[in-house]
Amino acid sequence: MDLLPGWVRNALPADESAFGTGFAQSFLLILACELGDRTFFVAAILAMRSSRLVVWAGALAALAAMTVLSAAIGKAFPLVLDKRWTGLAAALLFAYFGVQLLRDWWRLRGERPEENEELAEVEEELNHDHPAKKTHVARHAALALFSPIFVKAFTMTGLAEWGDRSQIATIALAASRNLYGVILGGVLGHAICTGLAVVGGRLLATKISEKAVALVGGILFIIFAIITASGELD
User: Fold this and answer.
1) How big is the chain by its Cα radius of gyration, in Å?
2) What is the pLDDT of residue 201?
């Protein structure tokens, strides 16, 4: 460890258990929020019309940038507020999202499965654009980064993620957990969700039950609220 440069040592988490806790909670949080969310469907629909790899790269770049920004905002709160208050605020946010998801589950439990509303909205928005011819030829990475598809995936995903439940939850989680664990866990969660979206998002959208996602997500957020409020893992 002493052989590493100073800036590398400073970037590494001092407490591995704190890093692991932040990583695990951030990873699970993103999986609970993003499967079947607007950003999921944006990537899924764009990938039907364009290169899956380019769409995945553009969407993930936007989500990674938003994760870093959200975690930085969350980490700044304890610098101006007492950590007890930021922890309490985070717990209340988790509880609010948990109750909201459980209410959605309760509302949907007696209904027959229908087309996902989020999917229908995203499809309607994207249908204003003319579908591009799908490319099967691999492009050079340098060209892909500046391709219109990459830019479109990046901008649309960033706009869809701004103010979303997962962004606010990431801010709240970073306020009381290890910064690097939250960032890495969040980015990995986004990478997996976006990967599932571009590979078979439209098919998955018909198989994933909104009720099941709402129930699991609601329970997970309530658990996070209890853990954060108790401070057991601090």
Assistant:
1) 19
2) 63
Interior/surface letters 41-59, b for 16+ CB within 10 angstroms, e for the rest: bbbbbbbebbbbbbbbbbb
Residues with Cβ within 8 Å of 9's Cβ and at least 6 positions away in sequence, in order, are 1
Structure confidence by residue, pLDDT tens digits, 75-109: 887 666 666 666 777 778 778 878 887 888 888 77
C-alpha dihedral, 211 to 225 to 25 to 106, nearest 10°: 0
Q: Is 11 inside a domain boundary?
A: no
Distance CA(95)–CA(151), nearest Å, equals 36
Pair of tokens at residue 165: 């439940």
What pLDDT does 195 receive? Answer: 92
Residue 21 within any structural domain of the chain: no
Rounded to whole angstroms, how far apart are CA atoms 60 and 171? 18
Contact in structure between 175 and 87 (CB atoms under 8 Å): yes
Task: Count up the domains in the chain and report the number.
Answer: 1
Residue 101 included in any domain: yes
Of the candidates 72, 54, 56, 66, the one whose C-alpha atom is nearest the C-alpha of residue 30 is 66
Of 23-37, 72-86, 155-169, 181-195, least confident by mean pLDDT is 72-86
Q: Is the dihedral of CA 69, 84, 165, 94 positive or negative?
A: positive
pTM for this entry: 0.68
Cα–Cα distance, 135 to 67 (Å, whole number)? 30
Which one-letter amino acid corresponds to residue 80?
V
Domain membership of residue 155 (yes or no) is yes
Q: What is the DSSP letter of 150?
A: H
